[in-house]
Amino acid sequence: MSNDKEQVMSDYIKKLEKExxxxxxxxxxxxxxxxxxxxxxxxxxxxxxxxxxxxxxxxLNFNFGRRAGDKVRExxxxxxD
Length: 81
What we know:
By secondary structure, this protein is mainly alpha-helical. Helices cover 58% and strands 0% of the residues.
């Protein structure tokens, strides 16, 4: 009976060690993604050209306070008043 318990415990420990290894690898991959988040863009395999063509350009400034349709809406409201 003692051998059966030891075997069950041994099998359980091996299973936990495998699961732990999977989690350690997944954690390392997530850390790498977090560290390199701003350095590369995810790809789907259909890109043409160099990877730098698909990276964020941090020098671009967009005015997100107004939408393109706001000008048309404002002009429509002035004409209807």
